[in-house]
Design goal:
The structure holds 2 protein chains of 2 kinds.
Chain A lengths: L2 H15 L2 H20 L2 H30 L1 H8 L5 H32 L5 H28 L3 H29 L6 H9 L2 H12 L7 H10 L2 H29 L3
Helix pairs in contact in A: 1-5, 2-3, 2-5, 3-4, 3-5, 3-6, 3-7, 3-9, 5-6, 6-7, 6-9, 6-11, 8-10, 9-10, 9-11
Chain B lengths: L1 H13 L9 E10 L2 E11 L3 E6 L6 H9 L6 E6 L2 E2 L10 E4 L11 H12 L8 H6 L14 H12 L6 E5 L7 H16 L3 E5 L3 H5 L4 E6 L2 E7 H8 L4 H14 L3 H4 L1
Parallel strand pairs in B: 3-8, 3-9, 6-7, 7-8
Antiparallel strand pairs in B: 1-2, 1-4, 4-5, 9-10
Helix pairs in contact in B: 8-9
The chains are: A mainly alpha, B alpha/beta.
Chain lengths: 262, 266
């Protein structure tokens, strides 16, 4: 096994020893179970579930990534004083967090959906929800790495992570809505499209909600996006943009990590 | 200045017995942390079969220089060379280095043995690790306890044992005897001496100059990131006309401040 694999193994073991990840899985399990039971079926629970996922996944991934990285600074430094390359170590740290976070999400949401709904029921939209959640996990873990390796002090790092979360999940759509409202006289489709691609949460929202056919919940940018692309192409474009949203922060964080002083 | 360093080095290396000697060179090093110039034009050699003490007041840049040799801190200018090869981001060269950090902050939940096993694993080390220091410290009973429950002294013993575990040919020891009781400090010093005698390149820092006098062969004296003296301990004593290392270093610090270190002092 390469160095990356070994680091992943130690990191996963370390992460799972903390109870945070377990709680994360249980939270999704309980929420999914509750929504499906109360909402009357998988199909009808999906939009609400999607909104929970869109808020909770970015928040938890950002916080867990930053907290574990600040906490693990000593571990990182220890490994770097041995023949462990920074690129390998970075990859190991990233996968060591992104994999267990994804797994907890998949198990927490997936198990109740499959058990209650059966594999066949709403498998398309449900699969999309699970896929988007995993992509969001990858995106926000990477953003957490950027924060942890850019802001020296843990308290300020956590505050930065929270501001990013608030900005992308809550403030962003509000600002876009106000902008579109005050500029209603102009053709805004393209700017709106750009605005949406610039926000990974919006991208994931479109992906999920277009599939469950709940356009009313799309928000303004999503509605434009559906008009513009519609159907499969919209999904492909959203997924591609989300992948870019993984790659970009990953590259930025790696660059910072390779130049960091310990 | 570069020339003389090189000549002295080759002279020494030729006489070394045993294993392939690895000398360490910090060449024209400059480093800033924000507005603070931590190291400036540092050009020093650390020779195999010698114990070199890196000395200087707090904040002189000692730890930064040691960490730079480990690759933990990147130089803004200059380069680090190990055994004739420039260190450039490749991690393999660290296989030659045993590092004892100033404050060991190992994963809290791991026991000494788990930590050792993890490092063996990460290094891909399948030889027989050197555990003689664990025995010499009488540390075996503590090796099954989680790191967080160890006392400061035992943490430092574990730290030293891990640094010397792989028979590295370069040892970088940052305040190795800090926190050790006199007995353990004696054990460690004896070990450092025997490592030197088998041809290791040993770099260390310490605040306890009295202890160092018996251990160090060479001295690199840093003041505000500048090398103010580099040479053998005997040369330092005769240059400063002092009787022991502590007095000599005190003189160097005073001289440094007097010699237009004004802006740094403020």
């Amino acid at each position: 096994m390469g160095v990356t694999g070994k680091v992943v193994r130690y990191e996963v073991r370390n992460v799972l020893r903390g109870k945070v990840l377990l709680g994360y899985g249980v939270f999704f399990f309980a929420t999914t179970l509750g929504l499906v039971r109360l909402g009357g079926g998988v199909q009808r629970a999906l939009p609400s579930l999607a909104n929970v996922v869109l808020l909770a996944v970015p928040l938890v991934c950002l916080l867990v990534a930053t907290v574990f990285l600040y906490d693990g600074r000593a571990f990182t430094e220890l490994l770097l004083s041995h023949p462990v390359g920074r690129r390998d170590l970075f990859r190991g740290l990233y996968l060591g967090l992104a994999l267990p976070l994804s797994a907890m999400f998949l198990l927490g949401v997936g198990i109740p959906l499959v058990v209650l709904g059966g594999v066949g029921v709403a498998s398309g939209p449900a699969a999309l929800l699970l896929g988007s959640g995993v992509l969001l996990t990858a995106v926000f873990t990477a953003i957490g790495f950027v924060v942890a390796f850019s802001v020296g002090d843990a308290a300020r790092g956590l505050a930065t992570a929270l501001v990013i979360w608030l900005g992308l999940t809550l403030v962003y759509d509000g600002v876009v809505l106000i902008a579109s409202h005050s500029l209603a006289a102009y053709p805004l489709e393209r700017p709106m499209l750009v605005a949406m691609v610039l926000n990974p949460v919006d991208l994931a929202r479109v992906g999920i909600l277009m599939a469950v056919d709940a356009s009313a919940l799309l928000g303004y940018t999503g509605a434009v996006f559906e008009d513009f692309f519609g159907g499969v192409w919209g999904l492909v474009a959203a997924a591609g943009s989300l992948l870019a949203w993984v790659a970009f922060p990953y590259a930025v964080a790696l660059r910072r990590f390779r130049r960091m002083d310990f | 200045m570069t020339g003389t360093g090189e000549r002295g080095l080759l002279h020494r290396v030729d006489r070394l017995p045993g294993e392939r000697p690895v000398w360490v060179r910090a060449q024209d090093i400059g480093k800033r942390f924000g507005p603070l110039q931590v190291l400036r034009d540092v050009d020093v050699c650390f020779r195999p079969g010698r114990v070199t003490a890196v000395l200087g007041p707090n904040g002189a840049g000692k730890t930064t220089l040691l960490k730079m040799i480990l690759g933990l801190v990147r130089p803004d200018e200059g380069r680090i060379m190990l055994g004739g090869a420039t260190v450039n981001g490749d991690a393999e060269y660290r296989r030659d280095i045993g590092y004892m950090p100033q404050l060991p902050r190992f994963p809290e939940n791991l026991t000494g043995w788990e930590l050792a096993a993890m490092l063996d694993d990460v290094r891909g080390f399948d030889g027989r690790p050197d555990e003689s220091l664990v025995d010499a410290f009488g540390l075996r009973a503590e090796m099954d306890k989680p790191f967080r429950t160890l006392s400061g002294g035992n943490r430092q013993k574990l730290n030293a044992s891990l640094a010397l575990r792989y028979g590295s040919r370069v040892l970088v020891l940052d305040e190795p005897t800090a926190g050790l009781d006199p007995l353990a400090a004696r054990v460690l010093k004896a070990r450092v001496r025997s490592e030197r005698d088998r041809g290791c390149t040993v770099l260390l820092t310490s605040h306890d100059l009295g202890q160092l006098q018996a251990l160090a062969d060479d001295v690199v004296f840093l003041l505000d990131g500048v090398v103010r003296f580099e040479g053998e301990v005997g040369d330092l004593l005769s240059a400063t006309r002092e009787g022991d290392l502590e007095a000599a270093i005190a003189r160097l610090i005073l001289d440094g401040f007097r010699r237009g270190g004004g802006e740094e002092v403020a």
